[in-house]
């Protein structure tokens, strides 16, 4: 059979015994080429499986196995850029992962169904998703978030607060990997559940509404995103206070969206009102403050004040480098 390696080997051995070495090699190469692409998909799927379990055994065992399968898929189908990207990201994560003295035996990771065990597993995975996302390792984070959602489903926690957190991060990592339409669908399914379970003014609900607006912006629906943020702002300020990180993020997003919709003068006004609060609450050199200062320069340039914008950028550069 063209699909059975044992048959290739039998045929190749027969040809070699008759002195036909070149034909034997050709049989093996043709057989390999017949299954190469499918094998690449198999090994890629296995790599994704182990990516989804990295958190559960101190990173190294499943991460190492994921890398081995990713190397195979990269070798088997070198023209598929997805295989190369997955391997590159896994190797970056390997460099960031803690060393493990004693590597336990790998298993395929049973899904906990007991709510207490499931809650602990989900919280552990989400912690790892946050760390990976901060490091830009979005593909691995996506697989872990998907596992957290699966645990929530199997344990009956999908519509409970911990399940909602897993679903939030599932949407966030989809957004981070550029799959914003999928992320938007997830968020719009999730929001009414969160509001029912936690109340419309719960901080997690407010964060999810902010994410919805961010995703809308990414899909090009900036006007709708601006409406969402403006509806969110008074609730956020009342519930969280004028210097809370959540409110500052909403105010920055409003300014971003004003700039994106061509309302540069209003965006500039919002940024100049926001910056002193951010500096007081977060410090002058906080990354969010620097990002807001850059938006100020962009808004100045858009309003025709290019010389002032240049001055702002030149003042910002040494701080950004430091």
Describe the structure in your own words:
- With 322 residues, the protein is mainly α.
- Helices cover 78% and strands 0% of the residues.
- α9 packs parallel to α11.
- The protein is elongated and about 85 Å long.
- It starts with a helix and ends with a helix.
User: In what range is the share of β-strand residues?
Assistant: under 5%
Helix content class: over 70%
Distance between the termini: 63 Å
What general form does the structure show? elongated
Structural class: mainly alpha
Q: What is the structure about, briefly put?
A:
With 322 residues, the protein is an all-alpha fold. It is built from 14 helices and no strands.
Task: Please render the helix and strand layout as text.
Elements: H1 5-17, H2 21-51, H3 60-76, H4 81-96, H5 115-134, H6 138-154, H7 161-176, H8 180-198, H9 203-218, H10 222-240, H11 245-260, H12 264-282, H13 287-302, H14 306-321
Helix pairs in contact: 1-2, 2-3, 3-4, 5-6, 5-7, 6-7, 7-8, 7-9, 8-9, 9-10, 9-11, 10-11, 11-12, 11-13, 12-13, 13-14
Key traits:
322 residues, mainly alpha, 14 helices, 78% helix, 0% strand, elongated
